Amino acid sequence: MIDIKLNGQKEVEAMLTAFPKQASRAVETALDYTAREIWVGVKEEMRKVFAAPTAWTMRSPAYEKTRNHNMMARVFYTEPERMADHYLTPQVEGGPRKFKGFERALGNTMMVPGKGVKLDRYGNVSAGLIRQVLSVLGKAEMTPGYMANKTDRSAKKNKKERDFVFLPQRHGRLYPGVYQRYQTGAGFGAKTKRTFADQSRTYQKGRKRGRFASVIRARGLRPILIAGRQRAAIKPLLDFYGVAHRIYNQRFEPMFWSNLNRFLAR
Fold first, then answer.
1. What residue spans define the domains of the chain?
2. pLDDT of res. 20
3. Within 10 Å of residue 96's Cβ, how many Cβ atoms?
4. Does residue 244 contact residue 75 with C-beta atoms inside 8 Å?
5. Cα–Cα distance between 129 and 102 in angstroms, integer?
6. DSSP string spanning 65-80?
7. Between the CA of residue 74 and those of 59, 118, 125, 239, 241, what are the distances in Å?
8. CB-based contact 217:201 (threshold 8 Å)
9. 89-141 residue pLDDT tens
10. For the chain, which residues score pLDDT lower than 50?
């Protein structure tokens, strides 16, 4: 966040003394205009430094005009719900990024997409898949706003493959993270169909001999979310304050004098 106000401009301050009414209006108009220009400039800078920023991220910058003759405008990032600090703060000021909601539900573990997950057009794991993972793992209620843990009843209604496991520690060659079980089909052909035989949802159909069908435990694990570097420092990419100061120095005074001359001519 940056507050935009007069900063030692002696000629402007002299006009406020000589023509208090007109100069005050000119200052407020110039501050409002400059705040909007900084808002536009920050969004343009975000498109340059971020690879495929989401629409949500691009809507984060906001500006506030002067109020009640307070001679101050603001440009800031709106804070998403359930987050103490904005997730873009480390991109501006550095330091470790904040845990995302689902990462807090998974024991405060920083996660990165695994090779087995399909990313959306912005390069992120979809919110729908995140909700499915938390639901299957019984951790949906740990994320504020959701009451969607998987139950026996919901499993019968939803026949899609939603079998996830969470490994909090390394297990053999498997790194900590979230994996999705899938049928291997080993010995049964590629078209072996998946079925659930008990509450663990980890079985699939085997060969059928007469009236009896054997079952095997699904052994394939597809990496969905893998634990990354924990609390690693982020190198700032967005020069938020630099953009703000540059635009303020370029736009404020010309706009002030233009408006003052217009108000004095009335």
1. 2-94+235-264, 101-227
2. 92
3. 13
4. yes
5. 11
6. ---TT---EEEEEPPP
7. 16, 39, 33, 17, 12
8. no
9. 888 888 777 778 888 888 888 888 888 888 888 888 888 888 888 888 887 65
10. 142-147, 154-161, 187-204, 215-218
